[in-house]
Amino acid sequence: MAIGFRFLFLLPFIITATTSATVTPYLSPEPPYNLSSLLNTLGFHLISVAATTSTNGTTTIFSPTDVSLRSCPYCSLPLLLLEHSVAGLYPFRLLTTLASGTRIQTLASTPSAPLCLTLTKSNSNTTLFVGGVQITRPDLFNDGNLIIHGIQGFIAHLSPFSCQIERMTSLSFPSRPVYMPPPSTAMRGLLKEAVYHLRIGGYTVVALLIQQNLDLLSQLNGVTIFAVNDAGVFVDDGHTFVSSFRFHVVPNRRLTAVQLINLPADSVLLTMVPGESLVVTVAGGGGPLSPMRINNVRITITDVVVNQGIVIHGVAAPLVRVHRTPNGCWPDLTEGFS
């Protein structure tokens, strides 16, 4: 009986010792990491090549997918990685609590040239964007020292003006007093930021037209522009689009891709040309076989540029004036371009 009692007393220790000897818990890698291997393992093969140094300190990386990087063949991968890396930990849960428009300074910043990612949200606050690119795979990696989010969309280098406009929610300069510039000054900075992205994205003519109209556009409370890329502009020596640029501008209305696609057919958009407007001739949501059309011209790409003041969408050709009739709008005059 005594022997049996001793055995029962020792049984828990025997079980514990056996378990400890046979079970090996998974241990996440400790910093500093081989960042290149980690990114490659997570599926970010192209950007992993640029990760030539190890990470030290807490860091959050918004890693572009391989498909996204192919949208910017002229971009420097090492610089892109720094532009999409920020000091500190920003799990997706925290990002959802930050106000839309919050700016976070990146590791690409220098004392004389800070660079910031701007956080924006969809109307429902369920979709987040950093630098205009959607976070599609949040919290892929998070061990308390390093967080990696996957992002997908059209990639471009950050504008030198990306930190210029400080807001109450800015995370770039927490110790400095906040300066809120007058609306026209703020809008001018946002327009210059858009010009930078347009120049490197194949919309140099649009960039020049915005600069020519900078004083006028700076007075607006938001603007949407339907833009033709350089290849489309010069189909007819550029005269059509250049001469009718203001007909492509919707003043005091900032329509992001989600808002644009949700507009019903026959929606009217006032332009900067007095008394003239655009009309949604084919509503969005129809897929590639039935693309959205404005004045019978196909929308080719949404959100070419997005910031707090301006949204630019790509169209297949210069917009033409249409007249609505009982049978709908006049026939599409740009089928040759679409």
UniProtKB/TrEMBL annotation:
PANTHER family: EXPRESSED PROTEIN (PTHR33985:SF2), OS02G0491300 PROTEIN-RELATED (PTHR33985)
Alphabetic keyword roster: Signal
Family: Belongs to the fasciclin-like AGP family.
Protein name from the UniProt record: FAS1 domain-containing protein
Family matches, as Gene3D superfamilies: FAS1 domain
Taxonomy, superkingdom: Eukaryota
Signal peptide: 1-21
Domain FAS1: 60-158, 224-322
